[in-house]
Amino acid sequence: xxxxxxxLVIGCLWLPLMAGAAPVAxxxxxxxxxxxxxxxxQHRSLRVGxxxxxxxxxxxxxxxxxxxxxxxxxxxxxRQLGLDLTWRNFNDQAALEVALVRGEIDLAPGLTQTPAGLxxxxxxxxxxxxxxxxxxxxxxxxxxxLEKLGSxxxxxxxxxxxxxxxxxxxxxxxxxxxVPAERQALQLLLSDQARYAVVDEAQLSRLSRExxxxxxxxxxxxxxPQLLRVASRRDWPQLADILERGLQxxxxxxxxxxxxxxxxxxxxxxSESPGFWQNLALLLAALLFSSMAIVIWQRRQQHxxxxxxxxxxxxxxxxxxxxxxxxxxQFSIDQSTVGILWVHWDSHVRYANRAAEAMxxxxxxxxxxxxxxxxxxxLHMDRWLDLWKRARANDEAAQHFETQCLRADGRLLxxxxxxxxxxxxxxxYLVVFLADITERRRALAALRESEARLKGIAGNVPGLVFRxxxxxxxxxxxxxxxxxxxxxLVGYTPAELQHPDxxxxxxxxxxxxxxxxxxxxxxxxxxSDWSWQGRIFTRxxxxxxxxxxxxxxxxxxxxxxxxxxVWDISQSKQAEQAxxxxxxxxxxxxxxLESVREEEKARIAREVHDELGQMLTVLKLETSxxxxxxxxxxxxxxxxxxxxxxxIAQLFQLVRDVATALRPPILDAGIASAIEWxxxxxxxxxQIPCLVEVPENLPPLSDAKATxxxxxxxxxxxxxxxxAQAHTxxxxxxxxxxxxxxxxxxxxxxxxxxxxxxxxxxxxxxxxRVLMLGGSMRLDSEPGEGTSxxxxxxxxxxxx
Length: 800
Known about the structure:
Layout: H1 2-18, H2 34-42, E1 45-51, E2 58-60, E3 65-67, H3 69-81, E4 84-90, H4 93-101, E5 107-111, E6 121-123, E7 128-130, E8 132-137, E9 154-158, H5 162-170, E10 175-179, H6 182-190, E11 196-200, H7 201-207, E12 216-221, E13 226-233, H8 237-248, H9 252-262, H10 274-299, H11 303-335, E14 339-343, E15 349-352, H12 354-360, H13 381-392, H14 396-399, E16 400-406, E17 412-424, E18 427-436, H15 438-460, E19 464-470, E20 477-482, H16 485-490, H17 494-497, H18 513-526, E21 530-537, E22 543-554, E23 560-568, H19 570-630, H20 635-662, H21 671-686, E24 690-693, H22 703-724, E25 729-736, E26 739-746, H23 762-772, E27 776-781, E28 787-794
Parallel strand pairs: 1-4, 9-10, 9-11, 24-25
Antiparallel strand pairs: 2-3, 5-13, 6-13, 7-13, 8-11, 8-12, 14-15, 14-18, 16-17, 17-18, 19-20, 19-23, 21-22, 22-23, 25-26, 26-28, 27-28
Helix pairs in contact: 19-20, 19-23, 21-22, 22-23
InterPro entries: HATPase_C_sf, HATPase_dom, His_kinase_dom, PAC, PAS, PAS-assoc_C, PAS-like_dom_sf, PAS_4
Pfam family, one: HATPase_c
Subcellular location: Cytoplasm
């Protein structure tokens, strides 16, 4: 009855909403400025993003209809502004913001203004206030002051949330209990695990309609309301102004009605409270007990007759159950796939089921009264009596064995025999259970052949094949199998390696043993595959490189084993080391050639600057002297001398540019000044802002390191100019852990590092310069996310 009345109340509340919900009262059209009206006429179709969270926005799949306070608000704005809205639904605000960045939505109602959101949206003034309410039990409810609550008064609140952070920062005396959702907070309140709960008004309006929370009441407000705003795209400020005018045109009373209809909590009437129904139930229980007393008094007159009738019925039912159980037992024995024989002490068969007759090849009833020696020629009377006595004494050794039975057609049938002693009425029997094991023996033979074949293959593998498992009793590792290839690989026989004091770990080189133990122990703890490469010693003391791989497998009994192989990779390892040495020598040669080239560039730059500069200076002086001496004699000569002076000035600038390209003189002032100078040149050439951060006090660097860092910077800025399409570039130079770190970042189009062309030698050249200085380089880039290049070079102060 209670549930029916609650459903009727809820249906009455929701009926107008499902029918379309009374819309906000319409008002005259919004007055816009001419520029705003012109912009709005060009952008009538707008895309609205909604975060589906009742009661702000919800979607009825059956009716294919959106409803909620934010939906009604946007419909009102659409009618007043003449907009054509397209709706898009999202599960959370993060997905909504991703759609905004992709340009898939234009505006979104019901958002709160945050510092992070200001970088993405333009927010209107608040159009609705959603307070955060304190909820307590209806019984003894009084107004609550959070500052007066003690540490024993537990307050349930959703965590993580801005409300929880506000309570923790404002009321340090509160004992907060974090829950994942508002429903759990109210449930903690009902189960007396919390004294109060903090829930926002919107969620409370949704949950207060449920009977589970009918005994709760609002006892206070924490003073941190949620202010709902309409957010729009930052690149459309005209839309934000138009929405602001539209919101200002909504009458306050209409917004209040919208708030009351969707967000105001609705509590059940007193007649629907649990106390009311408990009292009514007690009254009905009292009436029921009175009626039961009358019925019991009447039935006492029939008690004796009913007992007699029940006893007769139970006796009949038990007899029918025993007969049914006997029929089922007989049917089960007859239809069993295991042959069953009842044999008397004289070894004659007294009963045989159909499976035993089919197994031995006899027709139905032909086995009765036959002696067992007809089926098992070796079962003479003395042996039979011995089996009888031992089975009767419950000797397990005599109760189970394998033998061969003689079929009626003369063929031998391998069977598994189980004996069980049985007393039935006044006689004793041995129940013989026969199971055909022909297929089992055939499978066992195939298994043995497969194992022999596997051992033969493993023995011919040019390496060592092993199986590693844990001893179930002791919990220690052991090698149940090691192939014969161990003698050729390490000089030990399989039996020697299987000894607990030897194993594979004893063969590992002492310097590599810690790494081997770490890899193997990690695999054993997690029951996973493992792989290791390192040095091992043979029995003769010869050092070899080995590659050990093992794969895990779970057996049918739950045991975990590792099947693995040990390969001799000494030749390939030696070739790899030789290749590494060759690459190191090539890198040293490249470093030497690069140093020689930079020195030659510096020498040529000095000669060009000094020699050509002096000669051009003298030439300029001579031209000036000629101009002073002869210019007045001939106007044409004066013009020619002026042209020569201009050519000499251009030649001066050309000499400076060539010398600077060979080796910038600014490097003599330090790497920090050189970086700042190169950044300013980059700005002047590309008009791209370049932010530079360098420390004030840098340790002195060798000319080779300073030149290499400068060349890396030049190459990186060249790549930014050619490919990045960036708006800004950031360059930073810092000291970290006795290392000099140079970072060049841009906000350009980025790229996938794996998609770089093999013939692009810019990155290869930078990486080689870094490796020659003993440093490292890291390149981070994603399409559309820009590029960041970090170079780290160690500072060797004694060699700087």
